[in-house]
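Working notes for the structural subgroup meeting. M.R. asked for a predicted model of this chain before we commit to crystallization trials. I am recording the input and output together here so anyone reviewing the notebook later can reproduce the run.

Input as submitted:
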Amino acid sequence: HYFSQSTPLFDLMLNLLLLVFILNFIWNKLNASSNLYSLDKTYKEEPLSTVILKTMAFTYLNPHVYSDTIFIIGGFSKDFILNDKFFFVIGATCSSFIYFFCLGYASSYFANFINNRRSWNVIDRGVIFTMLLLSIFVLHKVILIVMSIT
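Returned structure, recorded in token form:
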């Protein structure tokens, strides 16, 4: 049973959960202190096995990996037909790889910029704005679903 074939009530529930998740994310971001960010410039060499284990743990034990995948990406692609879902997954995967590769590569370049409070405030506001746009999109879908039910 595909999500695209689900009942409007189920779609409403999923979109409401997505909206709650996004609004909670925005609320937590607004309440977070920029003092928590610091960039330690001291490096210590570690064995490759330790780096791989830490990478795997950071990736697969991180709850945001699953919430982003299920709620955000899954929520936005649930109305696609099966062929479009494959292209969406390929596009999301390629975009994610390019984003994180560039983020890692550019980290040393931006280290001085990112190691101050003002920069983190700009970054946080950008993230909040982006998530706010997503919440407006989801709220619009909720309204359309409610209108179709009534």
